Amino acid sequence: MFGFRMDLPVLRGDHIQWKLIDARAVLLDIDEGIMLKLDESGTMIWLEIDGKKSGRDIALSLMGSFKVERNRVEKDVGVFLKKLLKEEAIEFVKRKG
Questions:
Q1: What's the Cα-to-Cα distance from 20 to each of 36, 37, 56, 57, rounded to whole Å?
Q2: Which of 3, 7, 49, 84 is most buried when burial is the number of CB atoms within 10 A of its CB?
Q3: List of residues 6+ apart from 42 with CB closer than 8 A
Q4: How many CB atoms lie within 10 A of CB 52?
Q5: What does the pLDDT look like over 58-90, one tens digit per residue?
Q6: What's the CA gap between 55 and 34, in Å, rounded?
């Protein structure tokens, strides 16, 4: 695994099953048997993770949903993505080159 980078595309882990329950994402790590329940903001971020968008792209797409400055949204998205990375729920897509 390499360091956290907001400029790299983010991909959901293959071993993570998830579904929306009452408009909140519930993640299940099928390898470890661990369940994560996301809050509204976390769910919004999770739904943006598609293997193409970077953390920075996700932050920019969510700016319209939150009435806060860009730096704040990028920081909050970064903190959340770091937590998901620590739980091995996401990984980064290395760019070729």
A1: 12, 10, 24, 23
A2: 84
A3: 25, 80
A4: 10
A5: 999 998 877 888 899 999 999 999 999 999 999
A6: 24
